[in-house]
Amino acid sequence: MILLGDAACGKTKLVERFLVDDFNPMRLSTYALTLYNYKFLSDEGETVPITIWDTAGQEQFNQLHPSYYYKAHVAVLVFDVTRKLTYKNLERWYGELQEYAAHIPCILVANKIDTDYKVTSKSFNVSSKRDLPFFFVSASDGTNVVKVFKAAIAAGLQNKEHPPESFYSDVMKLLGEEPPGGPAAVTT
Question: Does 13 reside within a domain?
Answer without folding.
Answer: yes
